[in-house]
Design a protein that fits this description.
about 100 residues, Transcription Regulator spoIIAA, about 35% helix, globular
Length: about 100
């Protein structure tokens, strides 16, 4: 893993807290981000995405979130999104994700 997109804060917080990257919707970037994220969810049952950096989310970014949520859900895990801007929360609301993901 190159760690190009995903910054884990494992050294500061419990495993499973990751900062969602600011840039992720250009070309194959989202696919690369997903390839980096999914293996790092091994053994994690609670994922916290910190959305402090991005000011928008693309459909590809939504797919990454949904893929991670489906993986966690299949293991009885959960996801929290924190520090999301009002614009990002609006996108999650319009897509129906707001009702299946815990926002804080």
């Amino acid at each position: 893993m190159s760690g190009r997109f995903l910054r884990s804060r494992r050294q500061l917080f419990p495993p499973g807290i990751f900062t969602f990257p600011e840039k992720y919707g250009i070309g194959n970037t989202s696919a690369e981000f997903e390839e980096e994220l999914i293996p790092r969810l091994e053994g994690i049952d609670k994922l916290v995405f910190d959305f402090a950096e991005p000011d928008h989310i693309s459909s590809a970014g939504l797919r990454v979130v949904l893929s991670a949520l489906q993986l966690l859900d299949s293991r009885g895990g959960s996801m929290i999104i924190k520090n999301a801007s009002d614009g990002i929360k609006k996108v999650f609301k319009l897509t129906g994700f707001l009702s299946i993901i815990d926002f804080r």
